Amino acid sequence: MTRFGYTLMTEQSGPRELVRYAVAAENAGFDFLVSSDHYSPWLEEQGHAPHAWTMLGAVAQATRSIPLMTYVTCPTMRYHPAIVAQQAATLQILAQGRFTLGLGSGESLNEHVVGAGWPGLDERHERLEEAIGIIRDLHSGETVNRQGQWYRVDAAKIWDLPEQPVPLAVAVSGTRSVERFAALADEMVSTSPDAETVRYWQHFRANTTGAAHSRVTGQLPIGWDTDRDKAIQRTHEQFRWSAGGWDVNANLPTPAAFAAATQFVRPEDIAETIPCGPDLDAVVAAVRPFQDAGFTDIALVQVGDEQQERFLAEAAGPLLAALRAADSDS
User: Fold this and answer.
1) Is residue 244 pLDDT above 90, yes or no?
2) 34, 35, 110, 116: which sits with the fewest CB atoms below 10 Å from its CB?
């Protein structure tokens, strides 16, 4: 059965609100929570970027049993991988085994802020591979000394380790990244419902590690509102940044750059790609390509902070029922 999640989108809500939404999402029946980890919003209209790890610590205490996941953290520029390893271990203790560390190669929007520049894709993947190795070593409980190509670790040891190890998920986008990361991670993350990538991931992991099929998590934005015109307007205003595709989105450095890059994206363009309005069947239909591609977990992003509480109170229950009914019929 497919699991359906709720996204704590740090780009569009403040930290106290996100904790409140997490509790409401658990009460509404979502199967898991994912959180973005951003230093900046994509667009100024979104207007937020609280520290994800601080917020998730609060969420771990405010919720009861719902699984948590970063979607995703870049452990290569803004954070040193040794710090990510420590943060993940502490959060797993607070969450009592409910946390999965989702990792990716990052975006310039969030990582350029430390003044180290923004490398090309090959270097980003090299850094991520090395970072995953450091995180794994530190989570073993050993004292780690390492002088790698990109990172130095000097007599580092994590003193508070969880009883349940932290699963690692990694974001991939094609066969090359699958070959690089499938044997290093426990789960796959992707924003695109690409069945070939999922099949290759499962095949490559089985042949290299002998592991059974792993979880595959995707994400889908929706613009629920009882008024479709308002939904389209809000989604265009706050989510038109997604129209550029990942190759563009990974390299633009500021919200102003995203605004300039998407200035000619029209509301009707967004309405063609993101389900907007009260029609829950449209959301069910938009989810189907991820299920057909082999995704086991799908996190929904409700666009717009001002609509979260109403979405969670009015639409989440019926939507989850519709999604699960369609899933059981397939």
Assistant:
1) no
2) 116
